[in-house]
Amino acid sequence: MIAFADLLERLVFTPGRLAKLALLRRYFATVPDPDRGFALAAITGALKFPTAKAGLIRELAAARTDPVLFDLSYDYVGDLAETVALIWPERPTNAATPSLSEVVATLASAAKADLPAIVATWLDASDASVRLALLKLITGGLRVGASGRLAKTALAELGQGISADDIEEVWHGLTPPYGELFAWIEGRGPKPDPRHAPVFRAPMLAHPLEESDLADLVAAEHRAEWKWDGIRVQLVATQGGRALYSRGAEDISGAFPEILAGVAFHAVLDGELLVMRDGVVAPFADLQQRLNRKSVTAKMQRDFPVHIRLYDMLFDGAEDLRRLSFDERRARLEAWFARTQPARMDLSEQIAFSSLEDLAELRHAARAASIEGLMLKRADSPYVPGRPKGLWWKWKRDPLSIDAVLMYAQRGHGKRSSYYSDFTFGLWRGDELLPVGKAYFGFTDEELVMLDKFVRNNTTQRFGPVREVAKSMVVEVAFDAAQLSTRHKSGVALRFPRISRIRTDKPAAEADQLETLLALVERS
Amino acid sequence: MAPHPQTWLKLLSQGLYCEPGGFFIDPLRGVERAVITHAHSDHARPGHAHALCSPATRDLMQARMGQGAPATIEALSWGERVTMGGVGISLHPAGHVLGSAQICLEYQGSRAVISGDYKRTADTTCDGFAPVACDVFVTEATFALPVFRHPDPLAEIRRLLASVALFPERTHVVGCYALGKTQRLIALLREAGWDRPIHLHGALAPLCAIYEAHGVRLGDLRPATVAAKSDLVGGIVLAPPSAVADRWARRLAEPVVAVASGWMRVRQRAKQGGVELPLVISDHADWDELLATLDDVGAPEIWVTHGREDALIHAAGLRGIKGRALRLVGYGEGEEE
Fold this sequence. Notes:
The complex is a heterodimer.
Chain A: H1 2-13, H2 17-30, H3 35-44, H4 54-64, H5 67-77, H6 80-87, H7 100-109, H8 115-124, H9 128-139, H10 148-158, H11 164-171, H12 179-185, E1 207-208, H13 211-214, E2 222-228, E3 231-238, E4 241-246, H14 257-261, E5 267-277, E6 280-281, H15 284-288, H16 298-303, E7 306-316, E8 319-320, H17 326-340, E9 345-347, E10 350-351, H18 356-365, E11 371-378, E12 392-396, E13 400-411, E14 420-429, E15 432-439, H19 445-457, E16 459-463, E17 466-469, E18 474-479, E19 481-484, E20 492-495, E21 498-502, H20 514-518
Parallel strand pairs in A: 1-12, 7-9
Antiparallel strand pairs in A: 2-10, 2-11, 3-4, 3-5, 5-6, 5-7, 7-8, 11-12, 13-14, 13-17, 13-18, 14-15, 16-17, 18-21, 19-20
Helix pairs in contact in A: 1-2, 1-9, 2-10, 4-6, 4-8, 5-6, 6-9, 10-11
Chain B: E1 9-12, E2 15-18, E3 23-25, E4 33-35, E5 50-53, H1 55-65, E6 72-75, E7 81-84, E8 87-93, E9 101-107, E10 110-114, E11 136-141, H2 153-166, E12 172-175, H3 181-191, E13 198-200, H4 205-213, E14 221-223, H5 229-232, E15 236-239, H6 241-244, E16 256-260, H7 267-272, E17 277-279, H8 287-297, E18 301-307, H9 309-318, E19 322-325, E20 329-332
Parallel strand pairs in B: 3-4, 4-5, 5-6, 10-11, 11-18, 12-15, 12-16, 13-14, 13-15, 16-17, 18-19
Antiparallel strand pairs in B: 1-2, 2-3, 7-8, 8-9, 9-10
Helix pairs in contact in B: 1-4, 2-3
């Protein structure tokens, strides 16, 4: 556990990707099985301990600390596990710091009633750094500053002629502690065979299109589609099973049973998951109701019906289509679609255009809230995992913006904890300010320091962790779309709001009126 | 019956004011008479006519403030007592930085001690904190949360040296403030056996000379600004935090950015600052030291100047000690930690 905690701490603070890779490589090369396998599982999010919950940690801390001091500490640190790791008053113990394998085996098998005593003993036997790793592991909140992808890349570098994508394609057929995988990478065993497991394939991603890229694009070599405001998914159906994956290889099948229920084919499909009613795409806020759930009620399925808009096909049956050109794959997808008529799916429309000026016009005119912009794909592009340059482009609409008044602030979590970085801003209705949204990013580090200082020096009231500030700071808020919402007092919700500028030059009274924003609302 | 200190120590907009003595303690603006705990810029502000402080604080203020230094400065040695308007004043070491003092005020049989900033951990660059029994203890609360428990500073320095050994092709640059932290880091490095030259940003050098003049040996110090890049490879450079993040740092070979501060205990806070090697080394008392100090001075009442006053006042309450927040806006800015 000490080596694992050390790895996590180094990863958190190491900014460079290369240095992170070096740390991971060194860890995988020096730590024996099965510890390193469990570490890999922890980093890739493959470890789940259903009996251990954040509540357990809270109770442990409550038993040993003063509640007021705990709450003040938690408010300051901004992270439950870190607060407990730092505040934990150790009692002397003869127990040794537990190994990662021991922790994993115990958490997987121990009865729920026994856990508090076990975990307390571990915490007593550990220093603050190990305690933090332990608690993060237990609560499943292990943000390691390295993605599963990076870990797989480091692992691949330990082998000969193995790429991260090679690992990805066997990954979902494997289970921790991955003895078979390490044996293959170290040349001691054969490549693991996922057999017919519905494994995830790294998706092909698009680059944002900048004005300067436009000049090099030839219209006739590209195909255009709308960029829909949903989430990217990969639907995999093989002899061995079926699964719905997010773009980050997370298995989200449990949240969307109705999609998988309708699958009576073998294919690997790429598309956008959307909430749709009568053929009309609903605002993203509706889809949000369905995200980050392990299971879903019948009512949710009825109220927020999901649908996949297909735009690519990776496998048709067992046939790998990824080497084919985009046009060829599209033809296969269309033929397959006509043949199969899959439930809850349709095809992403291809937009006819003769010049890039046409497209620019279309992009500008697209005012439906559920459209984020355009996708441009080279007609001859094979399906390349990752983000290859120059093949696929996303061409977002220009953001909208308003000048709003800062109203409330809260300390951030994670990287931003201990800074006031979560801001609620509002617009005028008459001489009253109404909150219209929250923004957590967009500002530079220097601007964050300035905003943080403003909040600290201009607090007028405190509501728990929230500070109300003097209504004197104007910020320019950029956002992708404004949508009507019954959940907000102002009646409007913003998509991707971010603070694009601090308007110290502008008095609060000259910030925008709410009606200015309402005029920007798009009806889908 | 002795008058309660709140009857003769008042909170004015300029800061804490001793009415019968006619002087302020660490005032936030220029005043006629000031008693100064230590030379950090948030406590020793420019523009006072007369000041009373320790001899080292006097030297540090004169070096740092130039024209802004008080016109006349009277220096008191530890425990020496003077009287102003019937108020007895004496200074006692606070253990924060060179010359840092607690100010003990006695008036008609009641006694208040203003700690300024302080720590209890051993530090070879300044005299150690001496608890003084009192009726009201005026304390800082910079790290007054139970999550702040500073580890052994030498162990932190060994982490720095381990990193230097691990990345011999890179330059380790430690962000630290000019007064106190710089000299303490140097002394700790020497104590840990690092006898090679230590390179300093130009802003850090002058105060090191004053430390030397007060008998603190710092060893071979060299200017980083004129050094060849190759001389700094595998070495240790100290610089103000602002310079570390600035173009100045481009003269360093692939720098590993370390910051030495009590704030580094909170991981996400360290991460926010772009620190690659956080070192938890503080010149302020941690939670355990603050509570131990309350026990040591035995005051039935504490006043908290700045920091996380709510937590300290709550913990004092659990010990049967009355607490009051002064909320002196202006302390803890700029130079602390």
